[in-house]
Amino acid sequence: MNKLEFPLLKAEQIEARISTVSEKGCSLLLYKDARCDMNILDETVGAYNWRREHSRDNANCVVSIWDESKNQWIGKEDTGTESNTEKAKGLASDSFKRACFNWGIGRELYTAPFIWISADKINWAEKNGKKTTYDTFTVSKIEYADRVITALEIMNNKKSVVYSLKSTTPAQSGVKENKEAKEPSSEDIICADCGKTMLDLKKPNGTTVKKEAVKEYSEKTYGRCLCLDCQKKAEQNKENQPETSGKTAAEYVKESAERDKQRRIDMGTNWNSVISEKQKNWIESKADKETVERIISEFGYQSVKYVQKKDFDAILKRITDNSLNSADDVPFDDKLPFNMGEVSA
Question: How many CB atoms lie within 10 A of CB 232?
Fold first, then answer.
C-alpha cells in the first residue's frame, strides 16, 4: 500500500457542538459525523476497497482497507460510547468514527484552538432555573498549514460570526500568491491574531516602548506575538474562559479521550470494576445532565455507564460540592457525610 493520506476536512464537513455552558459563555468542540467518514473513504480508496466490522455489541469497530500490494485487508480498531438517543446506533456510529480517526480521517480536528463564545454573543434561555442556550453553530471557514488548523471562523444560526481565528501563515489553498503584493520585511513584527505590523509604543510621559519588548512580553505571557489591542482581548478572554490547567483544548480533549479509551479497554476484560445500575442512577439524580457530564469528563469518562467503582465516591462528592474547581481538588480517600451503604452495589 502506497502512502495513504486522506483529504483535510472542509468547513461544511465539520460540526461545531456546545461542550460547556456557563453564565460567562460557552465552549465549542469540532466534530465529524459518520456520513463524512463514509464519503471520504469512498472518494479516497473506492467504495469496494474498504469495510467496517463491529464486535462487543457495537462497542468496537474495525475499519479495514484493501492493500493491493499485500493482497490483504489492513484494519484499524477503536471503541466508542453510547449516545443519549438511539444508544445502539449511536454506539456503532461512534466506534466507527473513532476507528476512522485511527486512519487519519479528521485527525486535524485535534489541532483546533480552544473555542470560547462570550456571553454577549449568545442568545440565552432558562432551563431548570439556570441559564442555557439553544443556539446552533456552523464552521464557515477553516484553513490549514501542515495539517494543522491555522484559521477558523464560526457562525451562529443567525449567520453572525461569533468566533474568528485569523491565519498567521499562508493558507494551503492552491491559489497562487500575488507576487506584486508587498511582503513584510525581516524587521517587521506581525501580530499573530490581527496580522497588523506592530510599532513602537509611546507612553503619555514621552517614553517609548520598543516593539521588540512588546513582542517578548507577549510571547512570555500569551504564548504568541500580540499587539497591544490583541493583548487586551486575550486578557479579557482569559478571564472569561474556564480553567484548563494550562493545556490547549486539543491537549485536554486528547488526554481525556486517551484516559477514557484505556478505562474502556480495561473494562473489556473486567466489567466488575464498573459501578452498578443503582449507583449510576444515584449519580444522575444528584444534578442536571449537563453538570453530570461535565464532572465525569473531568475524571476521564464520557458516559456514566463507564464510571468505575474506585471513582464513585469522589465523583459523587464532586457533584455535591460544586465549590471545588477540578477533580484534582477531590481527596479520593475522603468519605462522604452520609451512609454510602444505601447506594452500594
Answer: 11
- Per-residue pLDDT tens over the stretch 150-175: 999 999 999 999 999 987 554 343 33
With contact defined as beta carbons under 8 Å apart, do 29 and 115 qualify? yes
Residue position matching grid coordinates 461569533: 162
Residue 41, pLDDT score: 97
Q: Write the DSSP string, 82-119.
A: --SSSHHHHHHHHHHHHHHHHHTTTGGGGGPPPEEEEG
DSSP, collapsed to helix, strand or coil, labels residue 287 as coil
Q: Which three cell numbers stand for residue 197?
A: 505590523
Q: What is the DSSP letter of 308?
A: B
How many residues are listed for the chain in this entry? 345
Q: What angle do CA 304, 249, 167 make, to 5 degrees?
A: 145
Residues of the chain where predicted confidence (pLDDT) is lower than 50: 170-186, 242-245, 267-269, 323-345
3-state helix vs strand vs coil in the chain, percent to 5: 40, 25, 40
Count of CB atoms within 10 A of residue 214's CB? Answer: 21
Mutual orientation of helices 309-320 and 289-298 as an angle, nearest 10°?
130
- Cα-based distances in Å from 325 to 18, 244, 295, 336, 344: 20, 10, 10, 18, 27
Q: Where are the beta strands (DSSP E) in the chain?
A: 15-22, 25-31, 50-55, 60-67, 72-79, 115-118, 124-127, 130-133, 137-145, 148-156, 161-165, 201-202, 208-209
Report the alpha-carbon distance of residue 116 to residue 29 in Å, rounded.
Answer: 10
Alpha carbon dihedral 305, 307, 312, 315, in 10-degree steps, equals -100
Give the sheet arrangement for strand 50-55, strand by strand.
Answer: 50-55, 60-67, 72-79
Nearest by Cα to 91 from 34, 29, 17: 34
DSSP notation for 159-197: S-EEEEE--SS---SSPPP-TTSPPPPTT--B-TTT-PB
Here the cell at position 110 is: 485535534
